[in-house]
Design a protein that fits this description.
The structure is a single chain. The chain has 163 residues and is an alpha+beta fold. Helix content is 25%, strand content 33%. Strands 8-7-6-5-4-3-2-1-9 form a nine-stranded antiparallel β-sheet, with helices on one face. The radius of gyration is 16 Å and the shape is globular. The protein starts with 10 loop residues before the first helix and ends in a 13-residue tail after the last helix.
Amino acid sequence: MAQHEEDREDLMREAVALPDRVKLSVGGFGSLITIGFRSNSAMSVFIGQDPVYQFDPEGGLRRAFVDGLLYRSQQSTLAMLRRERTDTQTLLLRTDLADDALQAFRDTMMHSLELLEQKLDSNDFSIIRSFPESVSHIARIQSTLATIRIAKPWLSATIRRRN
């Protein structure tokens, strides 16, 4: 995810941490979708600029960027992180999601991912760009989406702050 909230110029060019990546036009989505894999097979899904979902290799959600807010896994919930800027400092305010908000977040995320999975299964998409060009990413994406759908727990281990 970008360090700043402004739009990312070109995810395919900038997503160097995702050595395998593809940009798709998918039926039912108003934005292009960029999907990439880290070297450890962890998948990231960018639906336009927002939302963004990042998963661990086992399909657990690690981080998200939704409606301009950052979310970080706390293993049993998500921490919602909101930046508050003043003239002299930037504060990162944390709120852990309550059970109902956590379930609503998951329902919304899963609806998008299940729609994506259905559209890929029915071949209702076109590849805009692919890196590397010689790799067919679709089967890997379908397999990972299936893993995400059944992942238990659905949240990854707690992400610790960097020092």
